[in-house]
Design goal:
Elements: H1 2-11, H2 28-42, E1 53-58, E2 61-73, H3 75-78, H4 84-93, E3 101-112, E4 115-119, H5 134-140, E5 150-152, H6 158-161, E6 177-181, H7 182-188, H8 202-216, E7 224-226, E8 231-233, E9 236-240, E10 249-255, E11 258-262, H9 270-273, H10 286-302, E12 307-308, E13 317-322, E14 327-331
Parallel strand pairs: 4-5, 5-6, 6-7, 11-12
Antiparallel strand pairs: 1-2, 2-3, 3-4, 8-9, 9-10, 10-11, 12-13, 13-14
Length: 336
Amino acid sequence: MSGITLNRRKIILTAASAAAGLILPPGGIALAQAASAASSTAQGGTASANVGYYHLRVGDISATVLSDGLIGGPPQIYASNAPEAELEEVLRQAFLPTDHMTLNLNTLLIETHGRRILLEAGAGQTMGPLGGRIFDNLAAIGLRPDDIDIVVISHTHPDHVGNLRAADGSKAFPRATVFAPRADWDFFMRNEPDLSYMPVPEDFRRHFAAAIRQSLEPVINDIELYEAGTEIVPGLTTLPALGHTPGMANFLVHSGNDQLLLTADLAYHPIVNIDHSWLPGPDRDKETALASRRRIFDMAAADRLPVLGFHFPFPGLGRMLKTDTGYAWVPANWQF
């Protein structure tokens, strides 16, 4: 089995351009969104020439992966306990840069019971200039932000809530009811969060916390808070996946005998958090996060569930394979 796992690591075809992993200073979200839109128009859309959406079905539920673009940072952040030399060699074997790890932003739009539900809002430019593509990709499939009825957030980090705020400070999805985990809201919004656990400079932490508050400000008066384990609507159940944040949830989309598991930030990249079991540095409680990761990965492997990884190479779909030493990621074949 170890030989199979090694081959899996070597054949992952994951080559993406690097993305800046910087958070804009407070007040910069709206300006960056406007600048990004202007830049895209000026370039004639060439910056997003490749497809940024992917259709699939989960039983009777129509679903579309919508890319919000890219973020990223030093690989050691996402594999905090990896020996430096071993991490570099693993990245080289996967044909990935050794100085920067690119992460995708894969949101999911589902249509069920006459409602359009967006799972994760995406980053906007809260964590670098290459986010905020979700609106172009919505337009590409014939939809506008006011066509979205519900937005469900797995946790309130900026790359999951950044697009909730429009460039003018209003709601980016004006008709949508926004659901967020209660424990995350209490930690990040009701108090000044202690982010000392994050392996980043203090200035980055301040901007991170400010980006969360600024992104959520437009929905602060009508946010719907949920406990992990809640069924948001028929066919969409939340699963406790605590540790990365106090309240992070995973999503299970289900219809008939078909299911799709969304793992949020249980893993950042298959190479470092699945094929290898290195721990993500941004996990607030690493032991609890590790227990959540094992429990949900075991379920995914045992039940052979299709999985969507929020940060995995687009479109982020595949399955979890149980191995003698842990897990391996098996990307899904592209469906036309």
